[in-house]
Amino acid sequence: MTVAIRVENISKQYKIGIQVDSYHTLRDTLVDAVTWPIRALQRKLPSPTDFIWALKDVSFEVHKGQVLGVIGRNGAGKSTLLKILSRVTEPTEGYAEIHGRVGSLLEVGTGFHPELTGRENIYLNGAILGMKRREIDRKFDEIVSFAEVEKFIDTPVKRYSSGMYLRLAFAVAAHLEPEILVVDEVLAVGDAEFQRKCLGKMSDVAHEGRTVLFVSHNMSAILRLTEETLVLDNGKLIYWAASNQAVDHYLGSGFSKSGERTWTQDEVPPEAYPFRPLAIKVRDARSEIVDILRSIEPITIEIEYLLDKPTKGLRVGIYLMSVHGEYVFISFDTDEPEQYERFGTREAGRYISRCTVPADTLNDGRYVLGINASSFQVKRYFQEERALVFSVDGAGAPGKQWPEQRLGLLRPRLDWQIERL
Amino acid sequence: MSQTNAESRTDVLILRPSRGWSALNLGDLWRYRELIYFLTWRDLKVRYKQTLLGAAWAIIQPFFTMVVFSIFFGQLAKVPSDNVPYPIFSYTALLPWGMFSKALSDAGRSLVASRHMITKVYFPRLVIPLSSLFSSVVDFAIAFIVLLGMMWYYQISPTNVVWSLPLFLILALITAFGVGLWLSALNVTYRDIGYIIPFLTQFWLFITPIAYPSSMVPEKWQLVYALNPMTGVVEGFRWALLGTETAPGPMLAVSAAISVGVLITGLFYFRRMERTFADMI
């Protein structure tokens, strides 16, 4: 098989503070002017702590016609890798060779100007993405009908709805026909219908035998579009395997170290006495504390706390909400009457209250976990409605064979019977 | 058919850290010529969208500057004007000057203004300052029509050296582009450049014989004064169009050589800094 992309020990070093968007104001400039001699000195003597490796010794190969996925947490180096391969920035070390014309889609609508009409922006954006004018002429009608903006094609895009704007931007990009396509998280925008359309177009591209490098946070999209996937963490390539294994590794390896909220003594108000929360954690099926949980596996929630004196009638529990604030449920550790009898009075000491949300309960999405400790109609000791945020990934959940967004907070696996009468 | 074509001419792109000075790679720039065209076209389109007077602004600016100059310098201060009416004397100079200062300041700010493109897509970065240069030429062409009207009004016919006009134009563009390249590349790292540009153009305006003839400059300073390429451009414009006695001398060759020097060093400096643009901007 012929190689399309070969990457050997690619590394990229950033100076801290430069990588982030450094928009300079007048004040900055004045401060800069004052501190210039110091900075000038520092430039001569760079200290090693001023640098970070956004990417370190990454090597891999992509064959012609292969669709390779790249996953990893924010800051893992995915975007840096794509920027290097699409020649936006140079590697600090290492070597890469690319066989064929590269089209990169790090963003849709690069160079779109709000004052220009849809028609004008198609030509401008096409030229920026490296298309020839004749090529754009040829595909113009196709682009317009894909974007469904026929009626508004001569209207300035500043009057477009955000949906129309995104559709047009994606449509131009989708009609780029390079031999190698490098795509960043462009599908994470827009409404469900638009995402469905984008995914459809992406899989067309994949089936046309073009080489694609595809970065996404959407595990279902990765599983559907790619054969092999790279997992990046902290700038290093930590896993490279068939996509289903790579996704399992990523979701299961627990290197996403959030998924935990701890309280220090001074974060707890004195009114909470005698209750003192220590931590709330979410654990996956392998008991790892993770930020991304799988819909098809049970989720364990733990609250760890101290009681400074014996407490009567205490109930410790959770609120589960969507990020939009809709309640999924509220549950307390002494909801069961026998349990309430047994723990009528809790002695002073350190406790863990643990519960399990069964597999196949929650839909894809971000969820907010709140904590409450109270004695009913006596006192609310402690409450924090947004203690922890975690994600649920629906890969493998019922109905995932259809690339559509299922509304609702729950994704149960129901026992359907189909009878012919 | 196209498949086999693509197979056979597949070009291999090598990505590796580059060190030191790099080649100018003008071939790459040529491949992206359509992008230069589209960006120039965008600049022009956007500049006059939602303005009442549209492209008339390209005329209004030099025209009213000429009116103000004629009142204060021509009428009140009685500045001499090489035996041509003061309004046309100053307008002939304001045209190349306006193009030069606009090209210089637009090119100088161009990279920072296009940072959203630079961090997301590859293309030869020279495309950006180059397209700001071209859009200033279009404004110049529009304002030039007024000059023709004024020449008709004052009954001045162009001299037989009018063919040299494009050469002066090119000298102005080379100078603007050379300085613009330095400024734009420096602006990526030091945003101070954004504040320096207005001072620079204002200062340069005073050391160029726009409101006054260069003959007013004392003899002992003439040599230094002529080092400014814009002196040669402005004097050349008057000489070719109005027939003033300011024929370009040997100093023009020296200042042109300086401009070309600034352009070449600017190109190499730009190419050297280019690889860090996306990280620094």
Can you walk me through this structure?
The complex is a heterodimer of chains A (421) and B (281). In chain A, the strands form five sheets. Chain A has a six-stranded mixed β-sheet, with helices on both faces. Chain A has nine helices and 20 strands. The relative contact order of chain A is 0.11. In chain A, 25% of the residues lie in helices and 34% in strands. The longest helix of chain A is centred in the first third of the chain and has 19 residues, at 26-44. Chain A starts with a strand and ends in a 28-residue tail after the last strand. In chain A, strand 6, helix 6 (192-207) and strand 7 (211-215) form a beta-alpha-beta unit. Chain A has helices spanning 26-44, 78-85, 118-128, 133-147, 162-174, 192-207, 219-225, 243-252, 337-342, and strands spanning 3-15, 51-63, 67-72, 93-99, 102-105, 180-183, 211-215, 228-233, 236-242, 260-262, 275-283, 292-294, 299-307, 311-312, 314-322, 327-332, 345-346, 349-357, 365-375, 379-393. Mean pLDDT of chain A is 84; it is low at 18-23. Chain A is α/β, with parallel strands linked by helices and 421 residues long. The radius of gyration of chain A is 26 Å and the shape is globular. Chain B is an all-alpha fold and 281 residues long. In chain B, 70% of the residues lie in helices and 1% in strands. Chain B contains twelve helices and one strand, in the order αβααααααααααα. Chain B has helices spanning 2-8, 26-31, 33-48, 57-76, 86-113, 115-118, 127-153, 165-189, 193-206, 222-225, 229-242, 250-280; one strand at 12-15. The interface between A and B is large, with 51 and 39 residues. Strand 4 of chain A pairs antiparallel with strand 1 (12-15) of chain B.
